[in-house]
Specification:
This protein is an alpha+beta fold. It is built from 5 helices and 7 strands. It has a 5-stranded mixed sheet. It has a two-stranded antiparallel ribbon with strand order 1-3. The longest helix is centred in the first third of the chain and has 32 residues. One of its GO terms (molecular function) is phosphorelay sensor kinase activity.
Length: about 230
């Protein structure tokens, strides 16, 4: 009798979630230990003159923690599951303003951010995820060169809300080495952008001007999944 060909076992969704969760948990614990060590070492030195090496390691730990969170998100999407979101009432315009303030530092000093606010009232959704959506959109724009101007629109219209980011002009400068412009990086960003919008019952859209400048928009319903939001 001929032996049967080996087939990869099918992993139940619950087991898949536990495996990924355990892996991410281990990464977080290791990074937390690094962070604690950095804090202890920093206390031994002159607090008025922080060690540049410690600051670099601390920044690297922050990036690693961020990437571990994204790993968990990507795995959920790959498994056909929605991202985890924490629904609450929040001010869309304020979340967008804070995201812009945080994003200005990594961009060149010549990059100008414009924020157009449309509509009033609070939205229902996950403000941390909306901020993540904007950060990913900013990174996607910068992937093709630092834009001279970034136009950000936040719009509230009843149960729907929308954010849009567009490059208003490109600079010949390339982005920093900590964010390499690769096709894989763009795939990761777009996968997460779609996932965040979908978890809110909405959709992400990608477009571009005739000269190739990119734009990213997200429309959200403020619910956990549902029909794609129209605008």
């Amino acid at each position: 009798m001929q032996p049967r060909s080996a087939q990869a076992p099918q992993l139940p969704t619950e087991d898949f979630d536990r495996l990924i969760g355990a892996a991410v948990h281990d990464v977080r614990n290791s990074l937390s230990a690094i962070r604690l060590g950095i804090e202890l070492l920093a206390r031994r030195g002159d607090r008025q003159q922080p060690d540049a090496v410690l600051a670099h390691v601390d920044h690297a730990a922050d990036r690693a923690i961020e990437r571990s969170e994204e790993l968990a998100d990507v795995c959920r999407i790959a498994a056909g599951k929605d991202l985890v979101i924490a629904m609450q009432r929040f001010s869309l315009h304020e979340v967008v303003r804070q995201a812009i303030d945080a994003a200005e530092a990594p961009f060149a000093a010549s990059t100008v951010f414009e924020h157009d606010r449309l509509g009033d009232g609070d939205c229902r959704g996950d403000p941390a995820r909306i901020a993540q959506f904007l950060n990913l959109a900013f990174e996607e724009l910068a992937g093709s060169g630092l834009p001279a101007r970034v136009i950000v629109v936040s719009e509230v219209a009843g149960d729907l809300f929308r954010v849009a980011v567009c490059a208003g002009g490109a600079s010949p400068e390339s982005h920093g080495s900590d964010r390499p412009d690769t096709a894989l990086s763009s795939v990761r960003r777009r996968l997460l952008l779609h996932g965040i919008a979908r978890a809110h019952g909405g959709r992400a859209e990608f477009g571009g001007a005739p000269d190739g400048r990119p734009s990213i928009a997200g429309t959200f319903r403020g619910v956990r999944r549902g029909p794609p939001a129209g605008y």
